[in-house]
Amino acid sequence: MEETISLKELFQTLKKRLWLIGLITIIAAIISAVISFFVLTPIYQSQTQILVNQAKSDQQLYTGTEVQTNIQLINTYNQIITSPVILDTVREELNLDRSVAQLKEQIQVSSAKDSQVVDLTVQDESPHMAAKIANTTAEVFQSKISKLMNVDNVNILSKAEVGKDIAPVKPQPLLNIAIAIVVGLMIGVGVAFLLEYLDNTLKTEQDIEQILELPVIGVITNIKDVPKATVRQTEPIGRAQRTRGETFGS
């Protein structure tokens, strides 16, 4: 016989295990908050922009074909910026105690669609070091790209600067806590249904009819204990009756 679970039974299961779902959710949120505020290291971000194109004289104008060629070369420039030729020089100038591969992981190079502007973004534990790496990388690229690609017109549009009220880009405690709450709810609901599924005890007469497919002949109701106040009131009466009986017997 196939078992069917109604929507009412699902809500009853959630209601019965509501304390467990809430407990798991709260624990997940607390763990996420502790990790976000006290364990993870804050990471700061700094950005600079570079414009790369071919130099033109005052009498010459850019044609659509030349602009399109420069745009297609942007991907090549992006690869050159994060190449060992550039980053090894940056590492030496800043005297960084990290490898070129580790430095490359901190740098992200991107450009908007159909744009000759290259965005150079650096993330580091120190906001000042992030700005230094971004500016130094742009300067080294500007000095070496003319020999590598025969490009003699590289302009740094904006330098990376450290603001007064700079905030880390990660971790994001509020976002992490929100994700932890959602995950905690999912885990709590899953555990609630799992416990309900593993619970094979019979608690009501409906369980006997549905699971064992047997008719219920009778039900024994729970007999509540007599309140203590009632017992205390009857005790003097009993004693009085015994005393009166003894008097008559004598």
From TrEMBL:
The Polysaccharide chain length determinant N-terminal domain is annotated at 3-94
Q: Which residues form a coiled coil?
A: none
Name its cellular compartments: Cell membrane
The way it spans or sits in the membrane comes to:
Multi-pass membrane protein
Q: Highest taxon of the source?
A: Bacteria
* Residue intervals of the Tyrosine-protein kinase G-rich domain: 142-194
Give the keywords, sorted. Answer: Cell membrane, Membrane, Transmembrane, Transmembrane helix
Q: Which residues cross the membrane?
A: 18-40, 174-195
PANTHER family associated with the record: FERRIC ENTEROBACTIN TRANSPORT PROTEIN FEPE (PTHR32309:SF13), TYROSINE-PROTEIN KINASE (PTHR32309)
Which family does the record claim for this protein? Belongs to the CpsC/CapA family.
Q: What is this protein called?
A: Wzz/FepE/Etk N-terminal domain-containing protein
